[in-house]
Specification:
Length: 663
Amino acid sequence: MAETIVTVGIDIGGTFTDFWVFDGQKIRQHKVLSTPGNPEKAVLQGLKELEILQLALIIHGSTIATNAFLERKGAKVALVTTRGFEDVLEIGRQNRIGIYDLHVKKPDVLVPQEGRFGVTERMDWQGQPLVPLTQEEIEKLGKRLQSYNPEAIAIVFLHSYVNGVHEEHVVTSLRQQYPYVFASSHVNPEHREYERTSTTVISAYVAPVVSRYLEQLSETLGSSLRVMSSAGGYMSAKRIIEQPAAMMLSGPAGGVVASFELARALGYERIVTFDMGGTSTDVAMIQGRIPITRDMEFDHLPLRSPMVDIHTVGAGGGSMASFDRGGNLRVGPQSAGSFPGPACYGQGGMTVTVTDANFLLGRLDQDNFLGGKMILDRNATHQAFQTLIDQGLKHGVEMTDVALAEGIIEVVNAAMARAIRRVTAMKGVDPAQFVLLSFGGAGGLHAADLAAMLGIQEVLIPPDAGTFSAQGLARSQAYADALASVLKPTHDLTLEYIQDLLEKLADKTVKQLADDGHRAESITSFYHLDLRYQGESYEILTPWQGTLKDTVDMFHQLHEQYYLHKELLTPVECVNLYVRSIAEMRTIPLPLWQNSAAAKPFAHRPMVFKGESLSTPCYRREELSADQRIFGPALVIEPASTILIPPHYQATVDHYGIIHITQ
């Protein structure tokens, strides 16, 4: 790894596949249209166009696992569980989706009833066998599975998080015939039967898709390939295949990593990340560290796996606009994707999207989109708007194309503002106390208006904002993690017990990283405790402070921040210990902005703001100088994104080329 010259971050999105390249001196960025039916094709095409031929470290983020799950294109899974618990996956929790919705539909169960197999065995809550697992029972299971013929198997026995020996026996037996066998004691070794079952089943469900995809890429890229995990660090392809659910938020995690590195370099402690791409928008809150959670849901199914705490909404540049039966304007979550894409792409798309609305309002340059690689089609845009206007008339809504375009922008901005409030206000913090860091190909067009809606005073837009998530992949570090269940009150635990168990978990993660080729001296381990008040259902991930007392004190502070109260007289329970280890291999500095001469507008274009057309100067971002100030309205264009500075706003460029927008 020390000989690596080129570092490449590759992020596959719904519309574009982004590349960010650092060769030790220069930075390059690149975009190609995504190829959803064959995603590795876009990856290999982009690498060929960039002429990445020499030794490289390629860190790749992809939605391949998420897409397989959401589109229900995963494997045929068999669930093997303790007899009597076959229906845990279908029963779920008592929580209801849309409690007042008379037509609500429960998510599809990933394993049908005929695919669930009960086995006679039982552990008690302390991990002591109550009913032994016999070889005869394992052989019976093998015969029953043959008739079902699964592609992957999930094994979830009761209390295996304390003692997984029964699961290990079944894995050993079945691995001879089935390549994808996952035991819950390895995938998610903690209590809560439903969540542990769901997590293990999701891992098995996406495993063959992830494995085939990475094997195809590895045939071409070989040992250069690394894969971004949902937890904000990368793994070898081999380790990802062993825990495929770690790819569920692979791409979006890169944007949060890049935001954290940028915030740290600029001295910002509180950042809200805003990543608006072609299909969706991802938001996260950073307070001095990358936010990690293990409590996520995908399509209302729980997934207990370490992930960057990101909230996603179906609002992007390709989100399609329509009128519902009541005549209300809707935007998203359906997206036009990369093909046919928005109407303005001129590829046959006939539905108005957010990108078309921005184009009609003059906020996209017809001749300089994607650095001039794509000429936007004005006639196709007007035709699509006329179709939508006619649809509105059928519902008694009469609007001009300009009013309709501004309405689309307002609706999509409202959806994205709700997403940001969810990761800030719903966690006890005021978004107005943060800085908004905007990236993604479409983010710069909406960031200033979004900040105004939330009371945020400053917006940061880094260079290469359209490939910022890919930059985060390139800046990420290798990581490994481990977890152990405790489930005891903190007053029953000793410091020696905690330290000994944390060290064992750390040794496990260090070995994983060492097996991937990382030196022990480059590895740093971070310790956490999952704590809760006795009687509570869910815990707070609390950084280890060196002593139990100090860690419990930190928990009280976090509980008060999240829930506005703390219970100093209520016993605190330790649910799990969690260790995350990072191998720091390289540092990619923020490059200084080289331009010194202030740029002049290359054109003035009419743009619409609140129904009024204003002559607006357009600048090329690469021509801006450090310390240059621009007054709105103005448009700043770069190859992968466009930045709008509305009226009454101003923008300044710092010595890293980052644009700061304020009122």
